[in-house]
Amino acid sequence: MADTNAPPPAFVAFDVASALATYAADFGPADPADQLQRLASALQASAPWTTLAKAGAMVVTTRPTPTIAVMGRFDAAGEHRLLELERTLHNDVGSLRFIDWPQVHYDVAALGEALRRHLGGDVARAQFLAIPRGGLIVLGLLAYELGLSPAQLNHAGDAGGPTVIVDDCALTGLRFREVLADVAAPHVVFAHLYSAPELRHALEADLRIATVIAARNLTDRAPALLGDGYAAWRDRWATRAGDQTSWVGITERLAFPWSEPDATFWNAATERDEASWKLVPPAFCAGNIAHPQPAVHLDAPADSPIRPTATTLWARVGDETLVANRTSGRMYSLQDVAAHMWHALVEYGDLDVAATRLAGVFDAPASRIRSDLDTFADDLTNAGVLETDDLDEPDPS
Asked: Pairing between strand 188-195 and 209-217?
């Protein structure tokens, strides 16, 4: 039985047809059902889902359009995480910039050439320090590109040459400043693959930083996304971030084969900055760990005599089965016998077969079960969550 003190059941559903077009461009073609599972697997690898999964289920369906939905009982903090999911799917999927391995090698070559121009003959005397963990991968590739010796790697001491701190990207400058605080060298070069020019300019105002070099630019999308609210948003986030963050903006969502850097959002219920939703499927990004419980796929055969409507969502959540009518917005909590009936109808798509199966479960005559199923099916058909062909009278046997 559901906890009477739990929040009421709720669902959110998102049409992700346009998001799947982006996925096809980034991760290769696949049929809509497989693309849906890819996107759902990325969302389930996210920090918000770790909490939401305790009280809900993720559902995917291609009917009537490709849709990802979340159903469950969510507190105020969970509702804010779902609002962030809506924003992520609406604003961020289209800006996803997945850097695959061929592009990584191009970018490392460009970064190496920029360092040669800046350091000149000092390349052979420079000490290179990687920011874990993406910086370790970039530095390893950069070592081949520049012909660095092992003695030059992951050291920041004074060996008579410049100190170069290496990372895969810089989004706010926070990680770099944390590492810089532990580096004794009076002047450093910060080299990485991706950052916004505004961030690089802000970092170079620090007298300890000789220069900041990036292979590619990121674009600040915040002014276009926020419009007249941009200045107030920037001031709020600058206050929350504190002195260690050098710049506040909203760039493209960036990801590498080894990791997807965290995007964050402000959860007004917890009054904390929280990690946002991931967008790269675990199969394409080693740092995104697959969730043990995959999303529920709802596409049932459309030719069954009795079936959920194309706009019906359902999922098992704890001890109940939640069923939602997307058109009306109404939800139903099915428990015990009602839940068994629902799943039998969905699985078998036939009243007689479902009645026979349930008779074995409940040790009751199939005719009686069939009569109860008729009433149950009529009620849910009237509620708009089931549709049926013309139903025969119960088999008297």
From this structure: parallel
Q: What is the mean pLDDT of the chain?
A: 90
pLDDT digits (tens, 9 = 90+) for 84-137: 999 999 889 888 999 999 999 999 999 999 999 999 989 999 999 999 999 999
What pLDDT digit, counting tens, does each position of 138-163 carry?
A: 999 999 999 999 999 977 655 578 99
Separation of alpha carbons 143 and 129, rounded Å: 11
Q: What is the pLDDT of residues 180-201, one digit of tens each?
A: 999 988 889 999 999 999 999 9
**C-alpha span between 295 and 99 (Å, rounded):** 26
CB 170 within 8 A of CB 249: no
Compute the distance between CA of residue 278 and CA of residue 196 in angstroms, rounded to an integer: 21
Q: Kindly compute the dihedral angle of the four CA atoms of residues 191, 175, 49, 46, in this order, to the nearest 10 degrees.
A: 10
SS3 305: coil
* Interaxial angle between packed helices 366-382 and 336-348, expressed in degrees from 0 to 180 and rounded to the nearest 10: 90
Q: What is the distance of C-alpha 220 from the center of its chain?
A: 21
Three-state DSSP class for residue 202: helix
Element spanning 212, H or E: strand 209-217
**In what side-by-side order are the strands of the sheet with 56-61?**
9-15, 67-73, 56-61, 296-297
How much of the chain, in percent, has pLDDT values that exceed 90? 72
The string of DSSP codes covering 99-142 is: --HHHHHHHHHHHHHHHHHHHGGGGGG-EEEEPTTHHHHHHHHH
Exposure letters 81-98 (e unless 16+ CB within 10 A, then b): bbebbeebbeebbebbbb
Label residues 187-216 b or e (16+ Cβ within 10 Å = b). Answer: ebbbbbbbbbebbbebbeeeeebbbbbbbb
Tens-place pLDDT, residues 312-336: 999 999 999 999 999 999 999 999 9
Between CA 154 and CA 165 the distance in angstroms is 9
The rounded radius of gyration (Å) of the Cα atoms in the chain is: 27
Q: How far, in whole angstroms, is CA 385 from its chain's centroid? A: 29
pTM of the model: 0.88
Look at residue 97 and give its three-state secondary structure: strand
Length of the chain, please? 397
Residue 54, SS3? coil
